[in-house]
Predict the structure.
Amino acid sequence: MLRTRFCDLIGIEHPIVQGSFGPWTTAELSAAVSAAGGLGSIGTTLLERHRVRQLIDSVRGLTDRPFAVNFTARPLADDVFEAALGERPAVISHALGDPGDLVARAHDAGALFMQQIHTVEQATTAAARGVDVIIAQGSEAGGFGGTVGSMALLPQVVDAVAPVPVLAAGGIADGRGLAAALLLGAQGVNIGTRFLASVEAGIDQSWKRRIADSHSEEAVKVEFANAVFPPPPPDGYDVSPRVLRTPFVDEWNARPGEVAEHAERLRTDLGDAIVQDRAHELVPFTGQTVGLIDEVLPVAEIVKRLVAEAEVLLRRAPTLAG
Ligand SMILES: Cc1cc2nc3c(=O)[nH]c(=O)nc-3n(C[C@H](O)[C@H](O)[C@H](O)COP(=O)(O)O)c2cc1C
């Protein structure tokens, strides 16, 4: 059994969180992770209040275990946040900017608050806001991230915010990553890419196949993202997305000087692609763990393997010290 303080705090069996997938969220995936003993997350990006309520209802129809509802600061839809609080989720998670008074609002509604960060300074600020859990996300991660890798970031954050529990994110896809994160001082892990390549994930099959077939080098940073999307608000984090290479990403990463003059068209192209459910053709958000993943698996199997592998390694670990 891999029980940590984080498990006790949330009331879950395994110290494993499924990171939110923003506009690619589905109730089936979130519920499957929670039902398997981890913590599933519902993404709210671009969703209206009624849709978020529906998703919460759907997850509750599939499992009675806790789950998180995720928001980001790019931008935060305050009415949707308020509506989510009204549904009394066990956990609110937040990313991409200083959480400010969102922490107190979540606590007032009875929810725990998890904040994702990319630097030590962001972590100490979040801890001072009173967050319950910090997710230290290294630059290997799929989706938006910073520049420091997990191996360097995680122990620094653990030291800086103790005793606030820290989850490791970015670069973890199997039991070796989970065991290593716990040894580095994490109380659990927040995993994205491995859960994208699951049977229950709602993404296009071609995207899942690419995750199973790609090497880590295929998961690149979208260098030009900040010239296209509105710059982060004053309290937002300086981040850029990691995605699988596409002709679109290769073209504009190679023409950095020309992005600004085409920004409006690129924004429209990306916006249309999201609405038409083909954003994965342009920017399939994915992390460097693609190189570790070679099959699409059911969520229950992913969680079972993560825990079983980590347990074997951690039992063996003491023998390494002689
Ligand atoms: C497709 C995709 C969409 C994401 N959307 C969000 C999001 O809306 N909110 C968020 O906090 N994190 C988001 N992330 C980050 C993940 O929740 C998670 O923290 C990250 O993928 C962990 O790194 P890994 O991919 O190396 O496992 C997204 C990641 C991916 C791959």
The mean pLDDT is 96. The two ends are 24 Å apart (CA to CA). The CA atoms of residues 229 and 267 lie 7 Å apart. The first strand starts at residue 16 and ends at 18.
